[in-house]
Amino acid sequence: HxxxxxxxxxxxxxxQGLEFLIRSxxxxxxxxxxxxxxxxxxxxxxxxxxxxxxxxxxxxxxFLPHDELISVLPHYDIFVIxxxxxxxxxxxxxxxxxxxxxxxxxxxxxxxxxxxxxxxHKKTGYxxxxxxxxxxxxxxxxxxxxxxxxxxxxxxxxxxxxxxxECNIIGQRIKDMICSAQEESG
Length: 186
Fold this sequence. Notes:
186 residues; alpha/beta; 6-stranded parallel β-sheet; globular; Glycosyl transferase family 1 domain-containing protein; glycosyltransferase activity; Glyco_trans_1
């Protein structure tokens, strides 16, 4: 069996959901899955959890400056965004979501407000219940076991990113907003 490479990128803050990601990894057949955490540090409680779950040989910590991260993302199979439902996660979308989409990576993410504005379940990504390690593990497994689904959501995610976040499109939207504001005030 091929080893599937999962990738997480972000700070080790509680609201990023590393705890749920580690718990979900422990529920998978870890001989077939490798996880790379692109984060400055792994907090002591997460390190303990990795040791307790006996998955240390499949978890790697790395760090790259943000502008270099996008160049390595295409080397991974699945991008994971395990955010729990907190006020900050319901109101903000991570830039890494858009970067992973633009790379055409299939994304397994929690169904929180900042993420579900961009991911449509099984179309541009795979959404799971926030804070539920079992649901996250099942979502990851479904994408691993269904390569056609993985390819489809990766392609659709890339198309979504091109259609919504390309520089010319964003520039036109800003121009339209300025013109609209001028018309309303004028």
